[in-house]
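Dear Dr. H.,

I hope your travels went smoothly. While you were away I took the liberty of generating a structure for the chain from your last submission, since the lab meeting agenda had it listed for discussion. I wanted you to have the full record in hand beforehand rather than looking at slides cold. The sequence, exactly as received, is reproduced here:
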Amino acid sequence: MRPSPFFSPVAWLSLAMTAHAQYVLDSLSFGHKQPFSPNGRGIPGWSLSSVNHQIQLLSDRIILTPPVPGNTRGAMWSDNAISTQDWSVELEFRASGQDGGTGNLNIWFTKDKVSVGTNSVYTADTFDGLALVIDQYGGTGGKVRGFLNDGTINFKAHSSLESLAFGNCDYRYRNLGRPSKLRVSHQNGFSVHVDDRECFTTSQVALPAGYHFGVTAAAGDTPDSFEVNKFVVSSGVAAAYQHSGEPTLEKLDRLPGSPQILPDQNADNIRGNEAQFQDLHNRLQGITHQIASAFVEFDHLGRKIDQKHGEILAAMPNVPQDTLNDLKRRIENIERTVGQIQRDLEGRDYRQHMNDLQSSLDSIKGGLTEHLPNTMRGIISASAPRMGMFLFVVIAVQIMMAGAYIIYKKRRNSMPKKYL
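The corresponding predicted structure, in token form, is as follows:
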């Protein structure tokens, strides 16, 4: 069977979209979702370590090396290894420090992350994989270099490390006041871009799957502070351990009666117009069945909602109609009363009443001001004790005391005397 010319462009378009689709591998990424630390103590899927300081984990960035003190190191490594050879990494970082500040940032793709740890390319002994280093090598103000090692070269002991770089470019990255963007792609070759500008590219590099990603930073006596804002790993094929990035159709596969989801295939494996048309036909047919199953499920859900609504209405108590009518009449009476009060308040002019009240208050105030002082003075005068009476009582008491004393002396003198 020869397909019609109409379906051939559609098939090619579908295959092109499938080939260029990118899946974010959440288990190897952070920073693309905020916050990237659910508890503020760590990043899911990553291990952190440091030397001479504690890595600061903020809501939107990770400080691998702080502004102070100096001679610090920080490292972060993915717990899972990537299972595909085609991938791309987008890293956003910021470097700041004094004019004479020193330090370096390293991006790793290695087989054994333990052998690297918190080291940089200058202090690592041997490793198997890729290393990208960003530093101020050569006094250029900034440089990005790429290194490869098969596990046989001791970088720490090498006398001319620059000769081992397979690619480099100049890039002034310090004190920009904004994050720098580094993009590394390993798809049909190897390329590095900084701030959407090509740094270097080569078709001679092929890296295997099953390696770990890592980021390390080191600072000198006058330190540079390195902050990482985002590290996102993307791939054209969704990894088997990637649960949070499942396509929606795979979740619809759980609906009853839906067909089995076709597995992803590499575009290079689909050759010929008939194979392309068959693959496109099968996928469109599967999508149609999925949509039909979804509508059936929605209809079933609607029936359940209607049934639950009827059960709720049936469970409500049966209120007599007379009670409802009486309640309705009471509410209507309340509405009429409230409306009458509102009309009465809006239709009358209370200005005269307020003026009369003000006049009464002024009259009361004037009466109090005029008569209250004289009244209080009269009350105080009438209630005050008389001075003449007070003096009379004092003199009378003294006379009585003097008379009593005289009588006492006379009686004492008239008493018989005893002689010894």
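Two observations you may find useful: The chain has two domains: 1-21+239-318, 22-235. The mean pLDDT is 83.

With kind regards,
E. W.
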